[in-house]
TrEMBL record, chains C, D:
This is Molybdopterin synthase catalytic subunit. It is an enzyme of class 2 (transferase). Its EC number is 2.8.1.12. Keywords: Molybdenum cofactor biosynthesis. It comes from the Bacteria. It comes from Thiothrix lacustris. The keyword Cell inner membrane does not apply. CDD domains: MoaE. Belongs to the MoaE family. It catalyses: 2 [molybdopterin-synthase sulfur-carrier protein]-C-terminal-Gly-aminoethanethioate + cyclic pyranopterin phosphate + H2O = molybdopterin + 2 [molybdopterin-synthase sulfur-carrier protein]-C-terminal Gly-Gly + 2 H(+).
Amino acid sequence: MAFLLGAILNGILSIMLVKVLFFASLRERLGVGQVMLDTHEAISVQEVWQRSSGENVLPVNVLIAVNHTYSDAAALVQPGDEVAFFPPVTGG
Amino acid sequence: MAFLLGAILNGILSIMLVKVLFFASLRERLGVGQVMLDTHEAISVQEVWQRSSGENVLPVNVLIAVNHTYSDAAALVQPGDEVAFFPPVTGG
Amino acid sequence: MIELREMPFDPWQYLAERQVSQGVEARSGAAAIFVGTMRDFNEGDSVQEMYLEHYPGMTEHQLETLAASALKEWSLDDVLIVHRIGRIIPTQPIVLVAVWSAHRAEAFDACRHLMESLKHSAPFWKRETLVDNSVRWVASNTPG
Amino acid sequence: MIELREMPFDPWQYLAERQVSQGVEARSGAAAIFVGTMRDFNEGDSVQEMYLEHYPGMTEHQLETLAASALKEWSLDDVLIVHRIGRIIPTQPIVLVAVWSAHRAEAFDACRHLMESLKHSAPFWKRETLVDNSVRWVASNTPG
């Protein structure tokens, strides 16, 4: 019962969090790979960047994905969303 | 000795011949795959066609090769050369 | 089909086995393939190994999106994308893109477009280890 | 390298074995491949088999000329052309064109150009046997 309640609370809490991920050289520069932001309302990607990276200006060559889909700095992020910031991709 | 003489004569004779080849549907239409033309001097591909196929007009879609290299009806053929006529190629 | 592989693979052996099991080459008439292999030099330096980072979840999603987009744009029978992740050493294949179609122009167009799209949009990042053991991130892909 | 083959072959197995013996894929960084396979229909008819006639001497010479021309026009490490001759049945590969380069754009360009040139200029002629045992020559190749 206590376990069940904990699971439910955990579910509710994660809904009010925005998961922020940094990859590759950007992760190394910021010194952080993942940040959980607490928000009860929609916020812009720009604000997600400021609150998670501690930097005001989003570098122009940083790519943005919201829920695994490419997005931009003006996009609105909902609690429960996953936002990723990363440098130009170099696969293939 | 007789064998050697024969080989030499054969060599001399083949130098005065133009070997003419027909391929694929053209060979089937003409009913002949190879003709040896006897000539002591250079003749045009057009003349090779007339003398080997028995037809006056070289069809426009017939391709021409002289000594394994693409050529045209005006080209001059020397005794000893190999001339081939064939339809559009359909490999690959 | 999309596959991320942690272990080395031989693209030709991979295709030979796949052909036996699926026979799509036989039905299609035309197959266009691209294989990218790790070289032992880059930007003038000798590279002894490479680590290929990806974004679990998004990388698969992005490759699936590219494949679905190619299947929509061209008349294709099948699309295959295999990409290495993790530690890679020189001479190992990194990427295999294969496209099957009834028409060779569509196979060529789709294969090339898939490779370019993958290079520009699939979330992979190369970190090179040079022969002096120094480490650097590859900043951007070479054009075309 | 140019090869005319009377017997069926698996292009992927062929490339896998060649890779082991030559290792050119490892050195090059980029490989672009085209494989053309016999389908069991053409121009709306079911085809049960095909005979591929060639011009011994000229066919090899023409393929060598195409390969040499590609090596001259693009920066390539190697070119491979394998083409079937003789009796072919549906699902069998007819042609394999493979190009290795340090640059993917050159590999793609050269591979495609080689296939188009081969289709337009290599002396091969296809004679089809339909399911009613009637025989016909393929009049011309499909574009692109």
